[in-house]
Amino acid sequence: MALIKAVRGIEPIFGQNCFLADNATVVGEVVMGDNCTVWFNAVVRGDVHSITIGNNTNIQDGAVIHCTYQRAKTVIGSNVSIAHNAIVHGCTVGDNVLIGMGAIVMDDAVIGNESVIAAGAVVLAGTVVEAGSIYAGMPAKKVKDISPEMREVIQRTARNYPMYAEWFK
Predict the structure, then answer these.
(1) CA atoms of 62 and 101, how far apart (whole Å)
(2) Which of 67, 73, 104, 124 is the most exposed place for a label (fewest CB within 10 A)?
(3) Binning pLDDT at 50, 70 and 90, where does residue 169 land?
């Protein structure tokens, strides 16, 4: 069973039909929308500031979602896929976004809607990622606009994770 824990008297709040893997951790001031999934070894740690997550968002294996004490909350939109071992910290992520495996998004960054952060990219603090674009590298820079095919990948990934969760129920 997932570790769900109150911190300073504040418990996580979950929408309908959320899936938490057996060893996922969700603590503190976290509000999660409907049909979200938090996978094996993922941590959503709302102990030092708030974390808000929209609907149909998946937080894949080993990902860490956190914030900065009294300074940077984390807001994640709907239909977002945060891939394996990514770190999303004290930032804002729009809707229909794919954050690749091992990517890092730092404090006060803003990820525009329908964007992709490539695997292994490091989005530095305060970076504003243009909507509809792909950012890659270290530090992450715009490499191109997303294609219609990539938009479908973003949507398909967000759609598939609730289906995968059904296999574990």
Answers:
(1) 10
(2) 124
(3) confident
26-28-33-38 Cα dihedral, nearest 10 degrees: -10
CB atoms near residue 156 (< 10 Å): 10
Instruction: Please give the structure tokens belonging to residue 125.
Output: 């603090």
SS3 of 139, please?
A: coil
Residue located via tokens 């730092």: 106
Contacts made by residues 44-48, CB under 8 angstroms, sequence distance 24+: 44/12, 46/7, 46/10, 46/12, 47/7, 47/8
37-47 core/surface letters (b: 16 or more CB in 10 A; e: else): bbbebbbbbbb
CA atoms 111, 122, 146, 142: torsion sign: positive
Q: pLDDT (tens digit, 9 = 90+) per residue, 117-158?
A: 999 999 999 999 999 999 999 999 999 999 999 999 999 999
Residue 158: other Cβ atoms inside 10 A: 23
